[in-house]
Amino acid sequence: MRKHVLAVAILAAAVPAMAQAAATAPAGEIAIYDAAEAKKAVAKLADEIEKTFVFPDVAKRYAAALRAKLAAGGYDGFTDSVAFARAVTADLQAVAPDGHLAMFLDGGPSPQPRAAQGGAPVAPPPSPMERAGMIAPGIAFVRFNGFYGQPETLKAFAEFLDRTAGAKTLIIDARTHRGGGLEEMDVLFPRIFAKAQPVMVMDTRASVAAVNGPLPFRSLVKVDAPAELARSEHRVTPVSPASPWVNAKIYYLVSPRTASAAEHLASSFKGTKRATLIGDTTAGAGHYGGAVKLGGGYSAFIPFGHSYFPGDKGWEGTGVTPDIKVAPERALVEALTRAGVAPAEAEALSAEYMPTGSMARRTR
I need a surface site. Which of 87, 148, 189, 342 has the fewest CB within 10 A? Predict the structure, then answer.
């Protein structure tokens, strides 16, 4: 069974989940390096990329580069598994940059805290949803650190939206959002849109879709596509009767840390003009895919799909630019003042609601 990664959460499924993750080597682990196994893993990685990477022409270039370096002895001399995986990742990125493509040790980015070498356990990741409530009169606020589709989060999000329906403004803070799936968006969209419409196109490589089936989200509708692709539209079906949220002003706070599924939402908001984006340009991780075992203790995240707003080209490598560009740390102040909060109060609320996680671009 192939494992598909939703941001930092690892979900095993019979069909591929949309994976929106920045795959890196697990922190704090020491792995015994086996040169023969490492080289076998590179050979398998080349084969897997060639079969499944979203763009077949680029896939061939990746595979050729790995095989050429392997044949030339370019992967000889390593003594450390983490350094080896990072070197292979760097070689792939040198061929064609991709916000998700990476080799890492089995386990990848884990939702469980790992013990640091010689130190205390690493702090657990933040909750997927934080600080949901009224931040000021008539202004609802919620922060997302990831869209992991957990039933308890979806229930809490729906209850928050229903409880605060009637607010004039909704502020969604995605400045520390690392990615995920579509379920949280599918809780939000039927409430905030007044008419049915597509908000995203998702192209999956046909060879992957033929083996694994369609992406497992009920809001996706299959549409015609070229033979090499399996194309779905992410569609909105508004609730009936219409929610009071259709009349609310929405601000979406972004940063260079805002990645993957959070960019899917950003692009949907910007394309439909349903929300105002405030902050800085997002991470530029616009492909989705899955994690595959390579053997020898290695895995890789291989993008097999590409997302883009209808009529647009997507945000891979470029990010989604905000409507109002300010330092991410100032984004909430900007949103609050635009919503009518006095400057001094906006400053105080921004300090109180400042994310604890990083808003800087993620590095490999």
Answer: 342
User: What CATH number is given to the structural domain containing 197?
Assistant: 3.90.226.10
For all residues of the chain together, what is the average pLDDT? Answer: 89
* 249-267 per-residue burial string, b: 16 or more CB within 10 A, e: under 16: bbbbbbbbbbbbbbbbbbb
- Total domains in the chain come to 2
Q: Report how far residue 126's alpha carbon sits from residue 144's, in angstroms, rounded to the nearest whole number.
A: 9
Contact (Cβ atoms closer than 8 angstroms) between residue 262 and residue 144: yes
**pLDDT classification of 107: cutoffs 50, 70, 90:** confident
Tens digits of residue pLDDT in 53-84: 999 999 999 999 999 999 999 999 999 999 99
What is the C-alpha separation between 204 and 286, in angstroms, rounded? 12
Contact criterion met (CB below 8 Å) for 262 and 172? no
- What's the number of CA atoms in the CB half-sphere (13 Å) around residue 238? 13
d(CA 41, CA 35): 10
**Domain assignment of residue 194, yes or no:** yes
| Statement to judge: residues 15 and 142 lie in one domain | no
Per-residue model confidence (pLDDT) at position 163? 98
Phi-psi region of 73 (alpha: psi -120 to 50; beta: other; left: phi over 0): left
Tokens 């790992």 locate to 114
Query: Looking at the structure, do residues 97 and 158 belong to the same domain, yes or no?
Result: no
Q: Beta partners for 279?
A: 254, 325
Q: pTM for the whole thing?
A: 0.86
The DSSP call for residue 115 is B
- Joined together, the tokens standing for residue 134 give 């009224």
Q: How far is CA 70 from CA 28, 42, 66, 106, 356, in A?
A: 28, 8, 6, 21, 42
Mean pLDDT of 110-119: 35
Q: What is the DSSP string of 294-325?
A: EETTEEEEEEEEEEE-TTS---TTT----SEE
Whether the per-residue pLDDT at 233 is higher than 90: the answer is: yes
Both 222 and 326 in a single domain?
A: yes
Question: Is the confidence at residue 145, as pLDDT, over 90?
Answer: yes
The whole-angstrom separation of Cα 329 and Cα 314 is 26
List the domain range (segments joined by +) for residue 276.
129-286+304-352
CA dihedral of 342, 346, 349, 355, whole degrees rounded to 10: 170
